[in-house]
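Query protein
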Amino acid sequence: MITLNEFLWLVIILLALCVSSLYKQKIQLEEELEKLKDDRQ
């Protein structure tokens, strides 16, 4: 049985992982958009 404190830490860590992976995807998408803009010009 885990305590509430341990459970909260797990939730925080999982949220941090989700946010960091989404942020990386966002950066990759922005780079792809920049490449597309460069190709059009």
User: Anything to note?
Assistant: The chain has one helix and no strands.
